[in-house]
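**Backbone shape codes:**
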Amino acid sequence: MGLNETPEREKAEFNMAVESLRQISGWFFYANDAAVKLDAFMWYHYLLAIYREISPFMSQIELDYVQNETEQLLLPINQFMDAQARTGRNRLEPGLYKRLNDLHLYFKRILKDNGMLMKMAEDAGHALR
């Protein structure tokens, strides 16, 4: 059986949906904190944690985009860490900040598009129940 093949299994009476959303929410909290502190290294790694949690809900195009973007961010993140080690300061270049922020917002859009941020209802009258 290949990695992309799923065997038939019994379905559980309970699932991890609430726990998964709690975990994702926690990672976003820490990612926001790292962004405010201009800590590119931690921000990047919190975004990777978010990616691991939401990847099952992403299309192949989205997965490919994030894989490429996270690989492209490795060099600037390492340069940030080298500069931080030399100077002892968090000097986050605007271009790196923008790329991390764009990835952060991309993940938020994926959650929104999958109905994981707001309750979705067919009838607007049920939207706030």
In short: Helices lie at 17-36, 40-54, 60-87, 94-113. The chain has a mean pLDDT of 86. The radius of gyration is 18 Å. Residues 32 and 43 are 8 Å apart (CA to CA).
